[in-house]
Specification:
The chain has 121 residues and is of the alpha+beta class. It contains five helices and three strands; from the N terminus they run ααβββααα.
Amino acid sequence: MAWPRVPAMVTRREAFDDLVLDSADRLERVLKAQRAEVEFAVEDIPPSDPAPWEEQVAPLGRVFPSDGRLPHRIVVYRRVVEAQARDEADLAVLVQEVVIEQVAVLLGVEPDEIDPPPRRP
């Protein structure tokens, strides 16, 4: 027997995964319009330290272009993003921004073209 799932039983990792999936779902229309097949993934940290010629800041996310057999892949680095967030609300906004930025990189457009800022009256 398993207990019914309650919010207290959701791990930080599961909650973060849900934020990434929610962000990806928001962008599904844009990706379909561009005919871009994309997988979204979460890893705890980037796989290695940057090389001396690379930016010396841990990336929040990364795009791995399709190699012909596999679709494009966007990875969000959970621990790095969590370290930048002030609270849970800030974490949700930051995850959305990272996903939008990575989709923009993949499509070769500015992030505002993916998710335009709201117009002010």
